[in-house]
């Protein structure tokens, strides 16, 4: 294993602390988080709502700055960079797939891809078209985002993130509100980028079905990295022993379920108040039920019972 920022490590996070100050309140979002991601690897960061996943991703992508600790991405020290150097890093070396996919509604699919290329001074229509084909949107280059389905919009957001051929791709809940089949398609595109094109992918998810597709899973809870494990087995997990790994994964998954049940109760209340229709309620029921089953299946697959 190489040292910090070594050739084989695409992302190195060391002792990162992030504190938000909001209306006189201090919120500790990350508590000395350290992890690394190898080139060509897909790392899923899994944790309940508010555990610090987006904060960690933003810090890796140079969108946000840590209060303490170091972050080195593709050999570049992001945590201490600023100005033009940081702007170019964000434009050319990291592709960010945002939770709300950040597409520009007044630009066509192809134009959305050409924009970051133009900002980097290398707009290339042919490459734009090739990227659209790669994400399964060949022939839809003239569509506006609102003329695409949710899954297609998300795939377009991936193509936009790939526009400048960045070595690192970060994706915040890329499968968020999508059904599992559509979500799986997005993850497969990201896996292909990593495993066939040597890109490094860091994504966040609260869904064990998505985490299971990654090469490794980092488990985060209340701003603390509980450990990193291989999705096929808990044994060999780093950062904690086997028993602790089981406990951490189980605790995080139970909290993810609690979040889902809470969303369901909120949907029921809103339905009672007449704010949402029966379709929205049924959809939430279906999602929570599927997530509950996925969590149970994942726990039993990992040999965690009870
Ligand atoms: N700009 C901000 N100002 C103040 N607090 C913030 C800010 N951004 C995030 N936080 C807080 O930091 C903590 C971590 O938030 P973060 O968005 O990283 O969590 P998350 O795991 O991505 O959650 P989710 O799954 O709901 O997106 C939360 O307590 C959140 O309320």
Plain-language structure description:
- This protein is of the alpha/beta class and 306 residues long.
- It folds into 2 domains: 223 residues, 3-Layer(aba) Sandwich (Rossmann fold); 61 residues.
- Helix content is 42%, strand content 25%.
- It is built from 9 helices and 11 strands.
- The strands form 2 sheets. A 7-stranded mixed beta sheet has the order 6-7-8-3-9-10-11, sandwiched between helices.
- Strand 1 and strand 2 form a beta hairpin.
- The longest helix has 31 residues.
- The protein is globular and about 50 Å long.
- The N terminus is likely disordered.
- The site of adenosine-5'-triphosphate has 13 residues, from strand 1, strand 2 and helix 1.
Descriptive keywords:
single chain, 306 residues, alpha/beta, Rossmann fold, seven-stranded mixed beta sheet, four-stranded antiparallel beta sheet, 9 helices, 42% helix, globular, binds adenosine-5'-triphosphate
Give a brief outline of the structure.
GO terms for molecular function: ATP binding; ATP hydrolysis activity; transmembrane transporter activity. By secondary structure, the chain is of the alpha/beta class.
């Amino acid at each position: 294993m190489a040292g910090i920022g070594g050739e084989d490590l695409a992302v190195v996070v060391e002792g990162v602390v992030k504190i938000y100050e909001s209306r006189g309140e201090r919120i500790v979002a990350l508590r000395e988080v350290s992890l690394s991601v190898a080139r060509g690897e897909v790392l899923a960061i899994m944790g309940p709502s508010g555990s610090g996943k987006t904060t960690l991703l933003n810090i890796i992508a140079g969108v946000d700055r840590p209060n303490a600790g170091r972050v080195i991405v593709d050999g570049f020290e992001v945590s201490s960079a600023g100005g033009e150097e940081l702007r170019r890093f964000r434009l050319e070396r990291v592709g960010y797939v945002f939770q709300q996919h950040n597409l520009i509604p007044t630009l066509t699919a192809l134009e959305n891809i050409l924009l970051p290329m133009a900002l980097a001074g290398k707009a290339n229509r042919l490459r734009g078209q090739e990227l659209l084909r790669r994400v399964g949107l060949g022939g839809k280059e003239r569509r506006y985002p609102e003329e695409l389905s949710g899954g297609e919009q998300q795939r377009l957001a991936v193509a936009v993130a790939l526009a400048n051929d960045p070595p690192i791709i970060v994706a915040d809940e890329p499968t968020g509100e999508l059904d599992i089949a559509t979500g799986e398609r997005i993850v497969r595109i990201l896996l292909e980028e990593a495993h066939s094109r040597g890109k490094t992918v860091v994504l966040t998810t609260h869904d064990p079905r998505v985490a299971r597709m990654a090469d490794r899973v980092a488990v985060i809870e209340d701003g603390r990295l509980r450990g990193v494990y291989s999705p096929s087995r808990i044994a060999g997990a780093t950062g904690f022993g086997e028993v602790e790994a089981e406990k951490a994964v189980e605790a995080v998954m139970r909290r993810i379920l609690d979040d889902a049940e809470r969303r369901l109760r909120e949907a029921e209340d809103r339905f009672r108040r007449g704010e949402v229709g029966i379709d929205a309620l049924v959809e939430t029921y279906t999602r929570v039920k599927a997530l509950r089953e996925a969590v149970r299946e994942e726990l039993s697959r990992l040999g965690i019972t009870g």
